[in-house]
Design brief:
Blueprint lengths: L1 H19 L10 E2 L4 E5 L3 E7 L4 E5 L4 E6 L2 E6 L3 E9 L4 E9 L2 H4 L8 E3 L6 E2 L6 E9 L5 E12 L4 E7 L7 E3 L3 E6 L4 E5 L2 E8 L2 E7 L6 E6 L2
Parallel strand pairs: 2-8
Antiparallel strand pairs: 1-3, 3-6, 4-7, 5-6, 7-8, 9-10, 9-19, 11-12, 12-13, 13-15, 14-17, 15-16, 17-18, 18-19
């Protein structure tokens, strides 16, 4: 009789002990899988998963990174050097935040060291002018970024002849003298009559050597474009 009375209690205790030993299901909690910090190089893209989120909203405190919703993921595009705070808010009101740090790309760190003619941050990888087949390079004096006559403006153009993709930089300088120049414009086209224009905060000629210039075009809504151009 004593054994029969004790058995249910023993079974109950074993059940409670087993339940207590189970790992906590952290995926029932609202979170983002990058944690509280994320580091990207300039112009890089990263996908962040929203865990147990359901519907949610995103907000950033500046344009150093552009964040867009993609289902249960957030697509982060690193635009400008510095930091950006991403805040994700669930329907329940729960929030998760991540500080995104945008660092210099390897190419930017050594920008002035190498003299190869090139374009950085137009495409995902650096374009080396003399090693890229099908790339047409032009330098147009007294011509603006759209191809119109404009005294004092010089425009460098890079175009893939087959696809029609192009990048053009214009500024009120011949690019032969170091300094910062206002009034610069960048045009980027995808070959399908879709051209985006960016007003530059500054166009900086940071180095001039052996018939070449190192040029940085700084913009608010695009990664800085960097060029090593041949002077004409």
């Amino acid at each position: 009789m004593i054994r029969n009375n004790i058995a249910p209690y023993v079974l109950m205790m074993l059940t409670m002990l087993f339940a207590a030993c189970q790992p906590e299901n952290t995926y029932d909690k609202f979170a983002i899988d990058c944690g509280s910090e994320l580091t990207l190089r300039e112009n890089a893209t990263e996908l962040i998963e929203v865990i147990a989120g359901g519907n949610y909203m995103i907000e950033t405190n500046n344009s150093n990174a552009i964040c867009t919703q993609d289902g249960n993921y957030i697509r982060v595009k690193a635009i400008k050097l510095g930091t950006c705070i991403l805040t994700v808010t669930a329907e329940s009101g729960e929030q998760a935040t991540c500080t995104i740090t945008i660092e210099k790309s390897p190419a930017q760190k050594d920008f002035q060291v190498f003299s190869d003619l090139r374009v950085e941050n137009w495409k995902d990888e650096t374009i080396y002018v003399e090693k890229t087949d099908g790339l047409q390079v032009t330098c147009e004096k007294d011509t603006d970024v759209a191809g119109y006559y404009s005294p004092g403006i010089t425009t460098y153009g890079y175009c893939f002849v087959e696809s029609g993709h192009f990048c053009r930089l214009s500024a009120p300088t011949n690019f032969a003298v170091k300094g910062d120049y206002e009034g610069g414009v960048v045009a980027i086209g995808d070959g399908n009559n879709d051209t985006r224009y960016y007003i530059c905060d500054a166009v900086s000629v940071v180095k001039v050597s052996n018939g070449k210039s190192w040029v940085v075009a700084s913009m608010a809504m695009h990664a800085d474009l960097r060029f090593v151009v041949e002077l004409y």
